[in-house]
């Protein structure tokens, strides 16, 4: 079922949203100093292509640099990408069959706004349930 949802998502919205992230990533990598933003953008592009069965979790080792980087990202690229997810999510929710895809689009908004200090994991990964590596609770 997850594969079917991902294939339909790819056709309906995923390809175009991933293209936006790839474009942002290329621009960031060209500017050299913003390469960490480019890497984050490429990571999210993969998530935007195939979101079902994955989730976003906070990285426990993220610190002040991630917070400062997120503010810079939000100003220059994040809000554009979040608007893309918002508008595509609204359009997808206009039909009953599109509602799961609209929800997937809305699910991508937080990571499009603040990508640094986040990690994309499979939903079966213990970190998706608030557990650290080895099944211990994450602090």
What layout of secondary structure does this protein have?
Blueprint: H1 2-30, H2 35-49, E1 54-58, H3 64-92, H4 99-107, H5 109-113, E2 118-122
Antiparallel strand pairs: 1-2
Helix pairs in contact: 1-2, 1-3, 3-4
What features would you describe in this structure?
This protein has 139 residues and is mainly alpha-helical. The chain contains five helices and two strands; from the N terminus they run H-H-E-H-H-H-E. The chain has helices at 2-30, 35-49, 64-92, 99-107, 109-113; strands at residues 54-58, 118-122. Strands 1-2 form a two-stranded antiparallel ribbon. Helix 1 (2-30) packs antiparallel against helix 2, helix 1 (2-30) crosses helix 3 and helix 3 packs antiparallel against helix 4 (99-107). The longest helix is centred in the N-terminal third of the chain and has 29 residues, at 2-30. The radius of gyration is 15 Å and the shape is globular. The N and C termini lie far apart (33 Å).
